[in-house]
Amino acid sequence: MLQTMQQDALDLAAKALDIFDVTEATQIARFIKKEFDITHGPGWQCIVGTDFGSFVTHCYGCFIHFHVGSLAILLFRGSAAPDMTNHQPKQFPVPALESVKS
Fold it and tell me: Coiled-coil intervals in this record (predicted)?
């Protein structure tokens, strides 16, 4: 995930925790997801909690998992399902990744 998008995720998590109590995981997830959809286009999913497992398919470069205290936040853009009308996968814009410097 681009560093700017990572920072957006961290900033939104902090803002959500200013608005909601740490026990309101669903509201925190909804807030982050909706704001990311507005800023970075539709298709984002957000999972928030203190104890969860996950097994997801995500678009390349559109995944972040981080902790704020004991609260884990998983944010990703889901991978598109095939478009069954012409049997071609749907395409969504994915941001170009910055080159990694060694």
Answer: none
For 41-88, the pLDDT digits (tens) are 999 999 999 999 999 989 999 999 999 999 999 999 988 655 545 545
C-alpha distances out from residue 4 to 7, 9, 66, 90, 96, Å: 5, 9, 15, 25, 12
Specify the number of domains making up the chain: 1
Phi, psi of 16 (to 5 degrees): -60, -40
Q: Nearest to residue 75, comparing CAs of 51, 92, 53, 58?
A: 58
